[in-house]
Amino acid sequence: MNPKILICEDDRSISSAVSEYLIAMDYTVLVVNDGDEAIEQFSNFKPDLVLLDIMMPKMNGLEVIKILRNRYDTPIIFLTAKISLDEKILGLELGADDYITKPFSMRELLLRIKAILKRNPSEDSDKVISYENVELFSNKREVLIDKKSLSLTKTEFDFLECLMKNFDQVLSRDQLLEYSKFDYLESDDRVVDVHIKNLRKKLENLKSKLKIITVRSMGYRSTIG
After folding, report:
1. Mean pLDDT of 47-65
2. Number of domains in the chain
3. Both 106 and 11 in a single domain?
4. Residues 46 and 141 in one domain
5. Are residues 171 and 81 in the same domain?
6. Is the dihedral of CA 50, 4, 11, 187 positive or negative?
7. Residue 173 and residue 199 in one domain
8. Could you tell me if 203 and 160 lie in one domain?
9. Which pLDDT does position 182 carry in this prediction?
């Protein structure tokens, strides 16, 4: 089945061009033009990924992602005009997986979509990685803490998987970005820190015994504590 992409963009010239290109690349596409319609159509369409404009009428992209993240962990890429790093960080804190700045090439957009949708197969992908009360299932991309499901974004899952596969080893921010296939060429340390901050909060909320420790000037490592 072709991956389904929900495009939430009020500029019809952009949404039309992106839609036509993705359909030609064998994606199934639904276009909506405002935030209210995005929320309304989401549950019916059940997209595999959302392209979400920030500046939209009725409900902007930041408001939309707050609502979606309370219900779903579907990957979301923000489509943005030229904005500051602080604004991009805010989007990531709200749960975005990536962002792309307008104007963008269709090729770049396609590569970002593929990177996020692509799973990370490995020889032991059907095995469970577990430490104390945390279990990670690579093939199902599922994490359980005391048998309770932990909802993570694609990037958060990738970071956790990388840290658990390399338990108690220090991993640099670049290593985490490369593992997740995030666009690390345009990222800085704060992007990783935001995802780790969100991941830690989710782990703590379910009383995970697995901890993510900051190693100053080096990166992060997973441990039990």
Report:
1. 91
2. 2
3. yes
4. no
5. no
6. positive
7. yes
8. yes
9. 64
208-217 pLDDT, tens per residue?
Answer: 999 999 999 8
Q: Is residue 75 part of a domain?
A: yes
* More reliable by pLDDT, 113 or 83: 113
Asked which of 68-82, 161-175, 204-218 is least confident by mean pLDDT, the reply is 68-82
- The domain boundary, picked from 94, 117, 140, lies at 117
Q: Is 122 contained in some domain?
A: no
Sign, CA dihedral 49-53-59-65, equals: positive
* Alpha-carbon dihedral angle through residues 143, 146, 151, 154, given to the nearest 10 degrees: -20
| 13 torsion bin: left (phi>0), alpha (psi -120 to 50), beta (else) | alpha
Task: For residue 143, give the 3-state DSSP assignment.
Answer: strand
> Which amino acid is residue 110, in one-letter code?
L
Q: Residue written as tokens 């994606």?
A: 27
Residues 49 and 27: their CA atoms lie apart, in Å, by 11
* Tokens read off for 122: 């490995």
pLDDT band at 120 (very low <50, low <70, confident <90, very high): very low
